[in-house]
Amino acid sequence: MYFDWMIKRIKKWTRFYFGFSKTEANGFIILSIILIAVTFLPWIVKKTIYRREVSDTHVLDSLVALIDKRLHYEDIEEPDEPIVPHLFSFDPNTVTLADLKKLGLGDEISNRIIKYRDKGGKFYEVNDMKKIYGLSNEKFENIKPFITLPDKAGSIETNHVEEVVSAVKSGRIPAEPNDVLHFDINKTDSLTLMQVQGIGTVLSGRIVRFRNNLGGFVHMEQLNEVYGIEDYALINLGNAAFVSDDFKPVMININHAPFEELATHPYVSFNLARVIIAYREQHGLFENIRDLLKIQIVEKQWLDRMAPYLEI
Q: Domain count of the chain?
């Protein structure tokens, strides 16, 4: 609106001042606009290009600085030196957390041993150390000669009687030893599980539900995946329960299992189940279990964990 009014005023002024006709006035205005554009165009172009060059240069300089910094960091970074275990004689019932780490057991295993003791657990013979979840045979054999305990458990020494009686009364250990229990973890019920020290009503129910959803335990280490289970209960359960050598878990046919069957397994997320179904529909049936690795989000570690439950 304002622009039209301005053009009309300029035309009227031009015709009045220069005596132009209407057509000549229109031509004069157009020519004036062209001259103004030509005059200021180089300045506009120069400013635009310069600004872009400055921006690009700034980005490039930042990238170069970042690369130089990363290369410099990689040049000066030195690999961590491996921790060399320092072996010495020790009693697992009294050894400190710091000394356990010096033995080369690592933070996780060392903390697990201390936590086991804090819950009332005790080591009576050398092989009791093997009950600590996660302690590999290699590490156990390394420290075995330095454990100051008998090779086989005998009768309880006199100076331990009061300690055992106190532990029984406080409920830290049962009056009847756990080793009288001996049951198949895949066939037991929650009532039997509750006889194991450290496993109550809630935890026994979780173990049974997890086992059923899993299709059965193929090894005892899977019990560590049960939510809320503590190391003390794991060790006691390891003494009482076992996985039968001829046990066969409930299998999932990877070529025909529907989404619901896949997604309800504890090791398979909803998203992974959808991806497996979609890949199967797009590429056809799997020829073997390892074909699952062709799916981008499937990792070898997951497949090794899931393989005992899969079939073609």
A: 4
Check whether residue 263 and residue 231 sit in a common domain: no
pLDDT in tens, 34-57: 877 777 777 666 665 545 544 444
SS3 122: coil
In a domain, 88, yes or no: no
Q: Are residues 149 and 194 in the same domain?
A: no
233 band by pLDDT with thresholds 50, 70 and 90: confident
Domain with 41 in it: 2-76
In a domain, 86, yes or no: no
Q: Find the largest Cα–Cα distance for the chain.
A: 131
33 CB contacts (<8 Å, ≥6 apart)? none
Among 242, 261, 287, the domain-final residue is: 242
- Which token pair is 263? 């997604």
On whether residue 21 sits in a domain, the answer given is yes
Tokens of 127: 């092989």
For 310, phi then psi, to 5°, come to -115, 145
Cα distance between residue 66 and residue 62, in whole Å? 6
Pairing of strands 252-253, 241-242: unpaired
Q: What is the spatial distance between Cα 292 and Cα 299, in angstroms, rounded to a whole number?
A: 9
Task: Tell me how far apart the alpha carbons of residues 181 and 169 are, in angstroms, rounded to a whole number.
Answer: 20
Q: Is there a domain that residue 83 lies in?
A: no
Helix 2-18 and helix 22-76, axial crossing angle in degrees, nearest 10 = 130
Q: How far apart are the C-alpha atoms of 291 and 94, rounded to whole Å? A: 51
Q: Which amino acid is at 241?
A: A
pLDDT tens digit sequence for 143-153: 887 888 776 54
